[in-house]
Design goal:
There is one protein chain. The termini are far apart. A hairpin with a 2-residue loop joins strand 6 and strand 7. The protein is built from 6 helices and 8 strands. The strands form 2 sheets. The chain has a 6-stranded parallel β-sheet with strand order 3-2-4-1-5-8, sandwiched between helices. A two-stranded antiparallel sheet has the order 6-7. The protein is an alpha/beta fold. The radius of gyration is 15 Å and the shape is globular.
Length: 159
């Protein structure tokens, strides 16, 4: 996964914490959002691009296109911060051949049918099962809201 410096699940995608804190800490030159709905929604793309810090490129593309581009080495020499909105997307990216070994879980808001497992993380049964599959596959899942947080492992919250 040449060029990818960090992978994060955050249902807000690009927002203040991502644009300011995470991007700066990672020295990211590009924020990639891999999301099938965003990829075809010009209004959402415009809003998300406006949220990115000046000077940071954005790629707002489908999950399949993200996997294809990453595997083709398109981001070689860049520092790409990959954002998705669900652990299900991480599973899809892995199924498409990406060797994702570490993921930071940020915010997953309370929604109908979810259970809160940590202050900022609520999951459906399907998402919990997806997280468990990722852990079983050896993927390290941290749950740090901001870069200064450390030592929070999702396995400690997911029962």
């Amino acid at each position: 996964m040449e060029g990818i410096v960090h992978v994060r699940i955050d249902d807000r995608l690009i927002h203040g914490q991502v644009a300011a804190m995470w991007t700066r800490r990672l020295q990211a030159t590009r924020i990639m959002v891999a999301d099938d709905d965003v990829a075809v929604d010009d209004m959402r793309k415009q809003v998300l691009r406006m949220a990115a810090s000046a000077g940071v490129a954005t790629s707002l593309i489908s999950v399949e296109k993200a996997a294809t581009n990453i595997k083709a080495g398109k981001y070689r020499g860049q520092r790409v911060f990959l954002l998705v909105n669900s652990p299900l997307v991480i599973g899809r990216l892995r199924d498409l051949g990406l060797d994702i070994t570490s993921v930071n879980v940020g915010n997953l808001a309370k929604r109908p049918g979810t259970t809160q497992i940590k202050q900022s993380i609520s999951v459906t049964d399907e998402e919990a099962a997806s997280f468990k599959r990722l852990m079983d596959a050896g993927v390290e899942l941290t749950c740090n809201m901001v870069p200064e947080d450390s030592g929070y492992m999702l396995k400690d919250y997911l029962k």
